[in-house]
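Hey,

Quick one before I head out. I ran the complex with nicotinamide-adenine-dinucleotide overnight. Inputs first:
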Amino acid sequence: MKKDKVLLTGGTGFIGSHTAVELIQAGYEVEILDNLYNSKITALDNIEKITGVRPKFYEVDIRDGDALAKVFAEGNFDTVIHFAGLKAVAESVEKPLTYYEVNIGGTINLLECMQEFGVHKIIFSSSATVYGEPDSPLCVENLPVGRNLANPYGRTKYFIEEILRDVAISDPEFKVTILRYFNPIGAHASGLLGEDPNDKPNNLMPIVMKVAAGEIPELSIFGNDYDTPDGTCIRDYIHVVDLAKGHVAAVEKIGDVEQVQVYNLGTGRGLSVMEIVKAFSKASGMALPHKIVGRRAGDLAALCADPSHAEEMLGWKTELTIDDAMRDTLNYLEKQGVKIK
Ligand code: NAD
Ligand code: UDP
């Protein structure tokens, strides 16, 4: 059977570029749309080096409805994976309207185009952040979402999930898969793709990478007085290649979706910030400089995926370990010419 033609919005970004590789290697035709706000055009060269295929690229902003419509008029897509958006939590507090405009406004433009051009299958990059402050640290998809969300970024993800549900109700042809990512880390084993944000990093691993490169003197660990075994916060860190493969599984199954399906993509195992520091130090042979500082506002002590629904329905589960993620991160840094201090 002919495989879907897939449009990746945000496809030159961290998760999108890895997903492009996995989709191409699984035999899908992939096209990419991105405005290069937080990624570089060289991602296309690297996707081509890994797969031998250079996806068609549209430099388009999802806020530009006319430009989007031209892409859809040319593209004849079967499925859209919607990665494009802004994701810096602290920035979203300072610039909420920009976040609502890009993430929500952009998604509305995209859905309007999909409707206009008869494309009905969409996979959306949501986040564990929609669980807010869950009653249990182990998140199952049917927990309530949208309660006590700590920032506008999280609210955009929650609102988009709700918009997608409404669209699926209004138009039964729509098939929506919502993927709630936990904490993506790591890089492609080739060292050609990895996390390379254009702006100041906010997440733990990009900061660890900058400390290792000597660009930041030390990692500030936000609190060691949480109710966890070593006092530092616990998260579910998922290797980006496992995450990318989760998208391939979701594309394979999206034809069977009735209206909306939601999946957690995580490992099901939590690691503390201190364990991440140790894993990085073990892989790199350097003692990662760090200090304990006060808690970061809005942080939860522990958050972890229950990935069993994805395993049952998509036949997907993670295969790579934290040591694989650290090895691949270091290899990526080395390929970028970064010397570990
Ligand atoms: P990323 O910033 O590397 O990728 C997002 C891409 O979207 C970038 O290439 C950027 O240039 C593009 N983009 C931004 N604004 C755009 C616009 N107006 N028009 C067109 N393109 C635009 O981020 P990522 O880590 O690959 O995340 C991908 C998606 O997954 C995002 O929606 C993010 O919110 C979500 N997500 C990420 C994480 C994470 O920790 N990385 C966790 C949960 C969810
Ligand atoms: N963290 C930290 N120092 C940093 C950045 C993050 O101690 O400079 C901690 C943070 O408190 C959280 C974990 O690392 O417990 C993961 O944070 P990140 O921002 O990467 O993801 P999220 O909070 O969204 O799960």
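The longest strand covers residues 121-127.

Talk tomorrow,
K.
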